[in-house]
Amino acid sequence: MPSVRDLRDRIKSLKNTQQITKAMKQVAAARIRRAEAAMRAARPYAQRMRAMLDDLVEKGGKIDHPWLQPAAAGRPLGIVLMTADKGLAGAYNANTIREAEKYARRRSGESIVWYAVGQKAAQAVRRARGELGANWVLASKERSMVEQARSVAERLAGDFAAGKVGEITLVRPRFISMLTQHPETSRLIPIEREVERAASLSSVEFEPDGVTVLSALLPKYLEFTVFAAMQETLAGFFAAQLLAMTNATDNAGKLIDELTVVMNSARQAAITKEILEIAGGAEALRAAGH
After folding, report:
1. Percent of the chain's residues with pLDDT above 70
2. Hey, where are the domains in the chain?
3. How far is CA 84 from the centre of its chain?
4. Which CATH number fits domain 32-243: 3.30.450.20, 3.40.1380.10, 2.120.10.30, 1.10.3720.10?
5. How far apart are CA 39 and CA 93, in angstroms?
């Protein structure tokens, strides 16, 4: 059985850990509100932009644009792995990384170029099969997330146009609720056309032409899709960290209570032993005096 001193040191260590987890919980709770508000503000815009893109493609007839053509055979597969920059959020980052690894295994016959967004993603792709094309942090102190998303989108579009990759897929966490975040895989380029809808409500005329209009719209669509995914990833990270730190704080409290009971029992046993030794010594002295 550990000594009273050892138990006291363990309790002190747990209290220090509990203070850290409680502070991180409070920070995550403060940041999740702003991150979730930004994510929910960006999501409808991304959905409307996608709907507008689908309408243009559907109503514009056959438009010859590289981003709308089937993936080119023989070219490497580009995988964008998006995670948070930090850990201490349970399995939040690990689940997304595992999903990306599963997807890469399913495409085992192809060479892979990785694009990492988030420090945890950059660490993971260095161990993965394939080549590292580029990496970015999720939340930079030097520039805004909009600028980060624009940098990512420009690099992806440039590599696709140059033929370095024939297809680009995004693997990132999807924010479902404060308690639920699931990894999601979606193709960025070429654009996946939606299922054919009902007949067009009206004809659409392009000025100067459909290719020019889509050439201007598609980069903006890619940029905002990446931006919205980054917002979701950040909001999901704070939600997962809030839950993880709440559980860690509660578990530390339970361990402290359990160890306190054990320490009190050990201390009581030590006191009882000392009393017995004193009583035994006194009895021996009385016997020797007789």
Report:
1. 91
2. 4-20+245-289, 32-243
3. 4
4. 3.40.1380.10
5. 18
* Cβ-Cβ contacts under 8 Å for 63 (sequence gap 6 or more): 57, 210, 211, 214
CA–CA distances in Å: residue 97 to residues 70, 81, 129, 183: 27, 7, 13, 9
* 219 burial via Cβ count (<10 Å: 0-12, 13-18, 19+): middle
Alpha carbon separation from 92 to 134, 154, 242 (Å, rounded): 22, 27, 12
Per-residue pLDDT reduced to its tens digit, 190-221? 887 654 444 444 456 667 766 777 778 888 88
Question: Tokens standing for 108?
Answer: 């085992």
Q: Rounded to an integer, what distance in angstroms lies between the CA atom of residue 76 and that of residue 160?
A: 10
**pLDDT tens per residue across span 152-162:** 999 999 999 99
